[in-house]
C-alpha cells in the first residue's frame, strides 16, 4: 500500500512540476491560477443578485442532473479504460495483488471526483448570490464531489465486471435509459398538470418532495438545498448520509470484485492515453476518439489535390454514429429546454447555444490533420490545404449550430428576419473562431500544452473580434442609431470572412514546414 500512495503522490507532484517546466509554462500557469483565484474571490466580494426561491433549487437540480447523466452516458457508451497506460503497466507488471490494484483505483477516485466537482461548482456562487458563503461553498463542493465519486466508482465496478461477464455494461446502459425514461415520463405528467407550461412544470418537478429521493441526483439537490435553507437535521444530514453510504457500498463492492480485468484494462489504457494526448495538445479530444465507428461501407465522392483532405474527413464523419455526429444539435436542444424551463431571454439562450457549438468544434478531426505527414506531400498550395482541412468541421459546426438556433428561435416565437440574423451572426463568428484556432497553431506550433493553446486561442479570438465591433460602430454612425439586427449581422459576416481569410493566409506556413508533425 505504501507503493500505491507513493505512486499517487508522485503522479500529482509531477503534474505540478510540468506546469512550471519552462518560462512560458510558468508565466501562463501563474496567470491562469491567478485569474481563476481572482474570479473565485470576486464571486464572493461583488454584489450578486440572488436567484430566489424555487428558481435556485430548480437550477441546482437541473445542473446536477444534466452533468450526471451526460457523464454516465459518456462512460457507458465507449471503452476508454480506467487506468492510464503508465499506471496500468506499473500495476500489472509489479508485484501487486489484485486487491491492491483495486484499492489504488478506489483511492485515486477521490481527487478526480473533487476536481470534477470544483469545475461544476465554480459558477454556482454567481447565481446563488449572498445565500452562498465560503464555508457553505466548501460543503457544496464536498457534496457534489461525493456524487461524482458514486458515478466513478459505479462505472469502475461495471467496467471490471463486464470484462468477465460480457454485456454487463450494455445492460447497465439500458438501465440508465430506463431511468432517464422514467424521469422524462414524470416531467411530461407535470407538464400536463400545469397546462403544458415548461417553466411551471420544471419548478414543480424539481422542487417536489419525491424528487429528493431520486438516487444520487435527487439526494445531491436535497442536500445542497437543505444546506442553503438551514434544514440541517431533516434535510442535509440524511441526504449527505445517503451519498456517503453509497460511496462506501460501491467501494466495498469494487474492492471485492473477483473478475480478471488486467488484459482488458491494459488494452483500453491505450485509448485513454490517446484521449489524454489529444487533451494535452488541443485542449479537447478528437470526436473520433469518443465515438464508436461504423463498420459498414460508406460512399464519398473523392476529389484531387487539396480537396482530397476534404473527402477523407467527410468519409471519417460518415463512419461515426448518428448520435455522435448530431451531438452539437442535441446539446443545443438541451440549452433551449433549460432556457425555456428557467424563463431565460432568447439572447441568453443564443449565447449558450453558440458557446456550446463553438466549444464542441474543438474536437473536430482537422486538428489531427496538421500533424499527419501525408498532408505536407499533397501537391497543392498551402493556403488551399489550410482551407480544405478545416472546411468539413466548419460546415458541420455552422449547420449544427444554425439548426439549434433556428429551433430555439421557433420555440421562443422569434420572427423569421431575426432568426436569419442570429444564424448569420453565429456563422460569421464560427468561421472566425476556427481560423483563429488555425492561427494559434501557426504561432505556437504543436508542442505546446493545452493551457498555452487555450490561452493563445482566447487572445486571438478577442483580437479578431475588434474589426467586427469597429464595423458595428461605423454602421451605427451611418444609420444615426442602432440599425436592425439583420443589417448588423450582414456587416459582421463581411468583416469576419475578411478577417478569417487573412488569418488563413497568414497560417499557410503550417503546410510549408512540418513543425507540427510529431
TrEMBL record:
Keyword RNA-binding in record: no
Top-level lineage group: Bacteria
InterPro entries in UniProt: Put_ABC_export
TM region positions: 20-44, 50-72, 101-125, 137-160, 172-193, 236-257, 329-353, 398-416, 422-444, 456-479, 485-506
Keywords, ordered alphabetically: Membrane, Transmembrane, Transmembrane helix
The protein's name in its UniProt record: ABC exporter
Native organism: Ruminiclostridium cellobioparum subsp. termitidis CT1112
